[in-house]
Design goal:
Layout (H helix, E strand, L loop, with lengths): L2 H11 L11 H4 L1 H14 L3 H15 L6 H25 L1 H7 L4 H4 L4 H22 L1 H18 L11 H20 L5 H24 L1 H7 L4 H5 L1 H22 L8 H18 L8 H26 L3
Helix pairs in contact: 1-6, 3-8, 4-5, 4-10, 4-11, 4-16, 5-8, 5-9, 8-9, 9-10, 10-11, 11-14, 11-16, 14-15, 15-16
């Protein structure tokens, strides 16, 4: 059943694709390292979701009156730790990505393995220095997110290959990012908790949608994801319920969080749209392209959910 994919993996390992080696002139010059770093930054657009959630939490905690210097430092610290973790994930999955994501910089050969490690170490170093300069607690939160990210991909742990460890690592990693915004602003109030919970739950939505579309490859690789454990259709029903959980929390507690009456209407519209899109997968969950299309839409919902909290804070 999966022999074709297995053959593809063997071919990928034996591939003679021309890619920059560690000994090539481009890889050895400072300019070559900078270009590689920039190429990786352009490819990891997923980092923007974390940064936007952090900004939202900080704005909520400061009642939309931020200290822009402090906010800028937070953005740098969290951008680079998240970026570094994604680069590490790519470095540990090169062979698999040559099959599933062949156009990404490292598996395609546009960025060498050595340049990938340089980008990883540099990013984490910048993040640690900047977060420590903000506060000790900020550094601890950044370090926590880093450890969770490494545990997700490190060959000796591989949390992403084990259910439910994958979920237990991913959700806290997302929530810590949002909570850091409130903690640094010294105001962990209702809207900040909403921001963290919404980000954590919806990160699970996009994570599981990816698992649903990757069942064949994950089966060959020996990954025990939720769709493999309980089936793709059951997983779709589970994922479709998550936006409804967010809607329930928003409707039940928006007054306690001092959000305006517009917020429940916005959150209900966003979550209903999300659920209706997710259930369309019930007929096409084997269609990899369609599943990725739904996942891309849900990434946009990440931004919409966080923006709804800012709108909910406005005085009508």
């Amino acid at each position: 059943m999966f022999s074709h994919r297995t053959d593809k993996l063997k071919l990928a390992k034996q591939s003679s694709v021309v890619r920059p080696t560690d000994a090539s002139p481009a890889a050895l010059t400072p300019l070559g390292h900078v270009r590689a770093f920039w190429t990786l930054m352009k490819s990891e657009y997923r980092v923007s979701v974390f940064v936007f959630s952090l900004i939202t939490a900080y704005l909520l905690a400061t009642n939309l009156k931020p200290n822009f210097v402090q906010l800028g430092e937070l953005i740098v610290a969290w951008y680079f730790v998240t970026f570094g973790v994604y680069v590490f994930n790519s470095l540990t999955d090169v062979e698999e990505d040559r099959i599933d994501h062949p156009k990404r910089p490292i598996p395609s050969g546009r960025v060498s393995i050595k340049d990938g490690w340089i980008a990883f170490v540099t990013s984490i170093g910048v993040s640690f220095v900047v977060s420590f300069s903000i506060s000790t607690i900020c550094f601890i939160l950044v370090l926590t997110s880093f450890v969770l990210g490494i545990a997700y991909s490190h060959p000796s742990i591989r949390a992403k290959r084990r259910f439910p460890l994958k979920i237990l690592v991913s959700i806290p990693g997302a929530m810590v990012c949002s909570l850091c915004g409130g903690i640094v602003a010294q105001n962990l109030d209702g809207p900040v908790y909403f921001s963290a919970i919404f980000f954590g739950l919806f990160s699970l939505v996009t994570l599981l949608l990816g698992d649903i579309s990757d069942v064949q490859g994950d089966t060959v690789a020996g990954v025990r994801s939720l769709p493999i454990v309980i089936g793709q259709r059951n997983s779709i029903f589970f994922v479709a319920l998550l936006p409804m959980v967010i809607a329930f929390l928003g409707l039940a507690f928006f007054q306690a969080a001092h959000l305006n009456p517009l917020f429940p209407l916005i959150i209900l519209a966003i979550t209903t749209y999300s659920t209706l899109n997710i259930v369309t997968l019930l007929q096409k969950y084997d269609d990899h392209v369609f599943a990725n299309k739904i996942k891309s839409r849900m990434r946009i919902i990440h931004f919409a959910l966080q923006l709804s909290l800012i709108l909910g804070l406005l005085v009508l």
